[in-house]
Amino acid sequence: MAKKVKKIKNLWADFKAFINRGNAFMLAVGVVIGGAFNAVVTSFVNMLLSIATWPVPGGLKGFITVLPALTPAQRGAAFDINGEIVNLQSFSMAEANQKVIEFAKAQNKTLTVDSEDFIQWKNSLLSLYDQHGTTFTSKGSAIIDWGGLLTAIISFLIVALVLFIVVKFVTIAQQKKAELEAKALEQYYEKFPEKRPAPVEPGAPQPTELDYLKRITELLEKQEVK
Predict the structure, then answer these.
(1) Are 102 and 79 in contact (CB under 8 A)?
(2) Which ranges constitute the DSSP H helices of the chain?
(3) CA distance 202 to 2
(4) Which residues contact 158 (CB under 8 A, 6 or more apart)?
(5) pTM value?
(6) Is 88's pLDDT higher than 80?
(7) Is residue 58 part of a domain?
(8) Is residue 26 part of a domain?
(9) Smallest Cα–Cα separation from 125: which of 193, 117, 164?
(10) Is residue 109 part of a domain?
(11) What is the DSSP string of 164-202?
């Protein structure tokens, strides 16, 4: 029992020593601050881009490219358009009510905007699609989200710029600190010259393998001469 208690105490001591290390603590602080800072930057970028794309219908969320349908799931629901059954991969928000009527008609249901079950049919249709701004795309569709990509790029550039500025200031502060410490140390040595450490004299260079081979060759030549 005493051994188990001792092991637990040792583990706790090791863990405490680990978390009290400067690097581990600073890393944890950096992760927390970085996460919070990323949220602020993302919100700031979204706000700026929303203002910049104010006239664009749907804003950045509608800035997408829908790739051609390759599978039945990507073709979308069936609609009765002028007596012809057509699968639509996407449609706009302005067309939504008309598409609900055509969607119901494709299933032999006559519907109008004023029908009691219009909302139910609309919810049923929209459940088959994802909304991107003012555009609805079938859930199986492959899209290129240019708005999300643009947001990520701008967020990255802002974070990189801020980190560069922070690192630059920290580097300058460290250099200034080192210069002040060196200046203070030099003033101390000028006041107390006896405290200045003696300069280290460079020692003789260590012989290399080539030097040993030359030495052996010289000794052999001397022996041959004798």
Answers:
(1) yes
(2) 2-19, 22-52, 96-105, 118-126, 146-191, 209-225
(3) 56
(4) 41, 44, 45
(5) 0.55
(6) yes
(7) no
(8) no
(9) 117
(10) yes
(11) HHHHHHHHHHHHHHHHHHHHHHHHHHHH-GGGSPPPPPP
Least confident of 52-61, 92-101, 178-187: 52-61
The one-letter amino acid at 206: Q
Domain contains 130: yes
In terms of Cα–Cα distance, which of 118, 115, 72, 116 is closest to 96?
118
105 contacts 126 by C-beta, under 8 angstroms:
no
Could you tell me the pLDDT band of residue 26, with boundaries at 50, 70 and 90?
low
Residue 113 has pLDDT above 60, yes or no: yes
**Does 213 have pLDDT greater than 70?**
yes
Residue whose structure tokens are 């664009």: 56
Model confidence over 169-184: pLDDT tens digits?
Answer: 888 998 999 999 989 8
Residue owning tokens 């929303």: 50
Question: Terminus-to-terminus CA distance in the chain, angstroms?
Answer: 81
Residue 86 in tokens? 């057509």
Work out how many domains the chain is built from and give that number: 1
Tell the residue number behind the tokens 């550039």, with chain if given: 157
Cα angle 171, 173, 175 (rounded to 5 degrees) comes to: 70
Neighbour tally for 71: CB within 10 Å:
9
- The domain of 134 spans 68-141
Q: Classify burial at 118, counting beta carbons within 10 Å of its beta carbon; exposed 0-12, middle 13-18, buried 19 or more.
A: middle
